[in-house]
């Protein structure tokens, strides 16, 4: 063990604070941007923008937690975890979009625009957090 209580040769063990920091950024960025859009557009943007944010935010947050825990526990198994996660998210997003558009009967244009914007933004953020995680271990 080193002076930080971490084993040699592996990635550092996660702390709740370190794991929560990226989650906090994802949640804060999403909610703040939604509040701004809702404030500017008013009722014309909701509930489509809110639901367009909710699915990608839940998936990206869950993905980050699983990725961080898998990497810190057994980094050699991370690729398998990521591939499994991608398959689960493909099914989740397919079902989510169908439910939002067919069952909830949301207006397609604001929902799809919002969903796409949050999806791209949140997964770009997760990629940056993953890069930082991998660099901190080397």
H/I helix tally: 4
Provide the β-strand percentage band: under 5%
Give the fraction of residues assigned to helices: over 70%
SSE topology string = HHHH
Please tell me about this protein's structure.
The chain starts with 15 loop residues before the first helix and ends with a helix. The protein is an all-alpha fold and 138 residues long. The longest helix is centred in the C-terminal third of the chain and has 30 residues, at 108-137. 78% of the residues lie in helices and 0% in strands. The chain is built from four helices and no strands. It has one domain. The relative contact order is 0.15.
Secondary-structure blueprint of this entry?
Elements: H1 16-41, H2 48-73, H3 78-103, H4 108-137
Keywords:
138 residues, mainly alpha, 4 helices, flat
Task: Produce a short descriptive summary.
The protein has 138 residues and is mainly α.
């Amino acid at each position: 063990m080193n002076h930080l209580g971490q084993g040699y040769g592996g990635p550092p063990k996660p702390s709740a604070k370190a794991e929560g920091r990226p989650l906090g950024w994802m949640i804060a960025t999403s909610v703040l941007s939604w509040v701004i859009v809702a404030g500017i557009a008013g009722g014309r943007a909701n509930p489509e923008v809110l639901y367009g944010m909710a699915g990608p935010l839940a998936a990206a947050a869950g993905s980050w937690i699983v990725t961080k825990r898998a990497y810190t526990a057994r980094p050699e198994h991370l690729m398998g975890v990521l591939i499994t996660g991608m398959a689960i998210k493909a099914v989740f997003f397919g079902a989510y979009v169908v439910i939002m558009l067919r069952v909830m009967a949301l207006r397609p244009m604001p929902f799809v625009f919002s969903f796409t914007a949050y999806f791209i933004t949140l997964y770009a953020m997760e990629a940056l957090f993953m890069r930082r995680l991998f660099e901190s271990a080397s």
